[in-house]
Amino acid sequence: MTIYNQEEVVIEEISGGEFEREPVPYSNWKSWKSFLGMYAGEHAAGTEFVIGPLFLTTGVSAFDLIFGLLLGNLMAVLSWRFLTAEIGTKFRFTLYYHLEKICGKRLVTLYNLANGMLFCFLAGAMITISATAVGIPFDMEMPQLTDTMPNGVTWIVIVLCIGTVISVIAARGYSTVAKAANWMSPVIVLAFVVCGIVALFQLNVNSFSDFWNIWGNGSEPFPGQIKYTFWHVFLWSWFANAAMHIGMSDLSVFRFAKKASTGWTTAAGMYIGHFIAWIAACLLYAVYLKSPEAQVFLSNGQAPPVAPGPLAYNAIGVFGIIAVILAGWTTANPTIYRAGLAFQAILPKTSTFWVTLIAGGIATVAGLFPAFAMRLLDFVALYGFILAPVGAVIVFEYFFGAKIGIQSFYAQKTGGRFNLAVFWAWLISFGIFYFISVHYNVFLSFLTLPAWLLCGLLFLFLSKFYQNKVYQ
């Protein structure tokens, strides 16, 4: 064994195999195949069974939906490839350790706590989605679009059981998460395709014009929803995963990649999951809207429920139940894994296994409350808006820091624990654009990119100011 290999073994033993505070060594780099399965599984997932129908409730037109998704998902792939994967394979740190070197321990602790909690809530929505499938054989009452609280003992028991299994898988580390996704993703993708084909038959679609006319020029949004245009779909689909690409959360994933080009594997998730799967789920909901049950809701001025389990079951039977369960798992697993890394950065002496179990427990409790899943479009937009600007700090330092003469990894080099440049850059950018969203009722995804850019620019300007002040 060479000295280099011996060092890698020692590093792995110290870090528990996840390298939370060390660069991932060469022996643990993974090929593009591991990422292909993970991204296909994570994004052709349980949320797609909710997001697809929710698009239909916004009254979006066929053109706006299809072309908005095509271009928005392309921008997401480019963000992963040229920002996240580029930086992830350069330094091979988790997001949390990378930020600690820039922000300082105290400031990054606040970020890690917020980041971990938001990921837990997102994973909770996945658990909710799986529960709608598991509950079918038990004749469980399904959550309505406006529900916020658990609706019965059966619901609570099912969510707790699903959450426990998912948490244990996530706690076993990235390799287990990737293996689970590789096994499950082909089944889930097949299920979405079959669901879409069956729905087309049920809708009597015999030509592309018939398919186009399902949406036509759009319609009035359902009660409680806003009208979506091309720009809503384009920007929402680009920033649905803003925390993970421009927010740099997936540094924690791409640090295992052999090279930056692995970032292209995210296209599997975007175009299988966020294009084909969303449209297939839209079709399932279109079928349901023609049912007598849905018509009763509509006649009473209410939005029909969006319960993924029954929608898939009505189309392809038991296979649909299995697909929804697996789809929830493959998204919740890496999401809880990311949350565990965030909490582990706060409690570095605690093993990743145990903090991930804690994250899974929080996610499971969140899964008891259907609101996170039923208001998924709004929640995803909000959590991306909160977390994405912090990623701009990493991106702008990497690409522009040396050019304007600021110190990289400033907190690590100076022993600082609270980088004011980062704090004020995030607070000002978040405050300005969130005020605009609330006060002028502007769709939040319209403001994610401006907030991200402003945060990055402010970080450079304030860093120059504070660092000059220190070194004068």
Keywords:
about 475 residues, Hydantoin permease, disordered N terminus, 21 helices, globular, about 75% helix
Question: Could you say which structural class the secondary elements and strand pairing correspond to?
Answer: mainly alpha
CATH architecture: Orthogonal Bundle
Q: What's the CATH H-level homologous superfamily?
A: Hydantoin permease
SSE order, as H and E?
Answer: HHHHHHHHHHHHHHHHHHHHH
Describe this structure in words.
Helices cover 74% and strands 0% of the residues. It has 472 residues and is mostly helical. α18 packs antiparallel against α20.
In short:
This protein has 472 residues and is mainly alpha-helical.
Helix-strand blueprint:
Blueprint: H1 3-15, H2 32-43, H3 46-57, H4 62-91, H5 95-103, H6 105-134, H7 153-171, H8 174-202, H9 208-215, H10 230-239, H11 251-254, H12 266-289, H13 292-299, H14 308-316, H15 318-346, H16 352-367, H17 371-374, H18 376-404, H19 410-414, H20 420-440, H21 445-471
Helix pairs in contact: 2-8, 2-12, 2-15, 3-6, 3-12, 4-10, 4-12, 5-6, 6-7, 6-14, 6-15, 6-16, 6-18, 7-15, 7-16, 8-12, 8-15, 10-21, 14-15, 15-16, 18-20, 18-21, 20-21
